[in-house]
Amino acid sequence: MNNRLHILLVLPGVLLVVALLVAPLYFVFLDTIPDLEHPFSLYEAFLEKGFHQKIIIRTIRVALITTMICVILAYPCAFFIARYARRFKAVLIVIAVFPLLLSPVVRSFAWMAILGKNGFVNDLLLFFRIIQEPVQMLYTEGAVIVGLTYLFLPLMILPLVGVIENIEEDLLDSAKSLGAKGNSVFFQIILPLSASGLLVGSILVFTGSLTAYTTPRLLGGDQAMTLSTLIYQNAMTLFEWDAASVIAIIMITSTILVMKIIGSLATHMNPDV
Fold first, then answer.
1. How many CB atoms lie within 10 A of CB 173?
2. Which residues contact 114 (CB under 8 A, 6 or more apart)?
3. Is residue 261 within 8 Å of residue 64, measured between CB atoms?
4. What is d(CA 241, CA 3) in angstroms, rounded to the nearest whole number?
5. pLDDT digits over 95-122, tens only?
6. Crossing angle, helix 50-83 and helix 141-164, to 10 degrees?
7. Does 22 reside within a domain?
8. Structural contact between residues 224 and 215, judged by C-beta atoms closer than 8 angstroms
9. What's the pTM?
10. Residue 21 domain flag
11. Residue 180: its pLDDT value, please?
């Protein structure tokens, strides 16, 4: 009786996931197979173009660099919030998630004003005579990475704060009483125990960076096009729905592969993850 009740409770959620997630992906995948004799002909036609290869490599590179920068910036912030600033935790968390509360268009236009040829960064470099004339910062990979880092940094901070603050003080005190020094405690205890937070944050940042549209479109333009902007171009401008479906499947496959690699690294740090 209990098993039947559990099944009835779970069944609506499962049907909803199948209807809204699995079924659309299945039909998108079917669109990429024109016939059974040559099931991968659309993929071959897409991947053999050097322009498309560059966009795939650029998209994965931007997502990976954004994820690594977020890890480097988020870990010290999360460590400070979780271990040393508990009285101000709520305020600092609100400040950390503030970028998520803004419209993507507003965020991107703000960075366009900062990174433009007449923007704050160029004006500052010109004032200190580091450069002689304005530098092109917009519509580059660097501009996209800056915008994505600003956008997704909170998604790295929040999981890390939750994991680090749950590390028991008794465990750290025991390690110190046995002669472990600060660096040893951090690298052998704190860092491995925070691997689950790193895993969750890295997956959120990477998948978000890989699939983001507004920020790459406004800050990267056509010069730093990514797969998400290429999908929009093929589907809404060129009306090549087959090509758009191929790009979608490539994005999903790339995401799964990188998530698997990130999961393996987290497991290597902490086998319990």
1. 11
2. 120, 121
3. no
4. 44
5. 888 888 888 888 888 999 899 888 889 9
6. 40
7. no
8. no
9. 0.88
10. no
11. 75
